[in-house]
Amino acid sequence: MNRRHFLKTAAAGTVVTSMSRKFAFAADAPLPTRTLGRTGEKVSIVGLGGYHVGMQSDEQESIRIIRTALDAGMNFLDNCWDYNGGQSEIRMGKALRDGYRQKAFLMTKIDGRTKKAAAQQIEESLRRLQTERIDLLQFHEVIRDTDPDSIFATGGGMEAVLEAKKQGKVRYIGFTGHKSPDIHLKMLQAASAHHFTFDAVQMPLNVMDAHYDSFEKRVLPVLVKDNIGVLGMKPLGDKQIVKSKTAAPVECLHYAMNLPTSVVITGCDSLNILQQALDAARSFKAMSQGEVASLLARTAPVAGKGAYERYKTSHDFDGTYHNPQWLG
Question: What is the pLDDT of residues 198-228, one digit of tens each?
């Protein structure tokens, strides 16, 4: 084994197959970055989803995934107060020890709609993540028509988040949701009515969304116009899009990266899947109109009525629907 091959193998710890080719982790290959809206923050084009890193039975494997991602330049870390009963944040907190916190742009989410619930969840997230400051805090699962008014009400969750920001515990503020573009637009309108502008907004952006109740068509232009950071999620539709056999994983990731996203967040429950995301980021090139049209033509026949976007059409993905006590 020559020295060059040894260094690549040692940095990776594994070689994986992606799109019928073999890749090794390459410590010297930079990961592309983009600017997070008007914040000016530089974030990796692809980000590590927090839910999946808390699913493994082996905590050490979760930590390896997080640290390998950070070492490779994937600096955007996603998480949430409710993921895996708190295990996702706990494991990420452990992974961020030993100097790794400095490599990360750390995002987490809270469910609290009342000031009291939001404040409690912020403190718990800080403790679990073993940090004094969250880079981006987001209101999670804005999926009900009533959510915007609840969050911005007197005694609502926004009061707690703004206080946390004033205290230096939070740098930027955003919100997430996967249900309906209408609710996202209502949240943005509620913010405007209160003379507030979000720093980032998270939503599903993928090859199926383009055909049905589309965030890409209705919300994305508003965010771009207002220079709000765009966080794309569910690029593979929680693996459902791949099951449709209309698009390969890397094609799905490239489609989301081809949109004006600041970062595309994807779940990585193994080092192999992490490597797939890294490969997609490093190999991404702007897609031509023809390439986009061809991919959408393939997915259109099965995309109707949200067949592969159950997060829009069912309560399967709605944690706060099944646990309304999290709202406060």
Answer: 999 999 999 999 999 999 999 999 999 999 9
Q: Using an 8 Å Cβ cutoff, are 268 and 49 in contact?
A: yes
pTM: 0.91
Contact 272, 67 (CB under 8 A): no
Beta bridge partners of 23: 16
Half-sphere exposure of 219 (CA within 13 A, CB side): 33
Report how far residue 302's alpha carbon sits from residue 290's, in angstroms, rounded to the nearest whole number.
20
pLDDT at 16: 33
